[in-house]
């Protein structure tokens, strides 16, 4: 349609639907061999939606700020698209980065704060190069769940990128979390220099110490 057509408002209404904000839909998209997007009686391949949404870009939304999705809706939709693309081009023998999964989709919502970790274990478990001890257990507290996730990340990572995860003001965070454990129930609109895609590729090009791994 023409850029001024009122029908473009449906783009904003679509991506602001609750489905796009849910943490559990991420694995539905990433683990699907051929995902489809269904809305009422309409349906289209997920890849077609990705191409269509990406083709709009910032330029189009600059012309039509009235149809620009909320910041959180736009961020989550973009991360769904990026993760789908990365998962499709990643060998099943490759170790997807758990920390990157948690950081990239931090804006996603869950009614139970523990699901901010549990929702990614299916994805991580399929490609982990070693057996990990992260098991969904709703008898454990949110704090214990986040500590165990942080411990797994530290043990499987050659870096300490987890220490660069932005924290929000401690008075609003989960009580009882050590300073090195991120509060995944809180979203912070800040990005660390160690921000990575799920395939472990860094988003930013920096080389302060000429090394990315801890020497043994």
Features:
216 residues; mainly alpha; 2 strands; 40% helix; globular
Overview of the molecule:
By secondary structure, the protein is mainly α. The chain is 40% helix and 4% strand. The chain contains 9 helices and 2 strands. The chain has a two-stranded antiparallel ribbon with strand order 1-2. The longest helix has 18 residues, at 46-63. The chain is globular and about 60 Å long. The relative contact order is 0.13. The mean pLDDT is 83.
Can you summarize this structure?
By secondary structure, this protein is mainly alpha-helical. It has helices at 9-15, 18-21, 25-30, 46-63, 71-88, 98-104, 115-118, 121-127, 142-156; strands spanning 36-39, 42-45.
Computed CA radius of gyration, to the nearest angstrom: 18 Å
The assigned structural class equals: mainly alpha
Calculate the terminal CA-CA distance, rounded to whole Å. Answer: 59 Å
What characterizes the major β-sheet? 2 strands, antiparallel
What does the secondary structure layout of this molecule look like, with pairings?
Blueprint: H1 9-15, H2 18-21, H3 25-30, E1 36-39, E2 42-45, H4 46-63, H5 71-88, H6 98-104, H7 115-118, H8 121-127, H9 142-156
Antiparallel strand pairs: 1-2
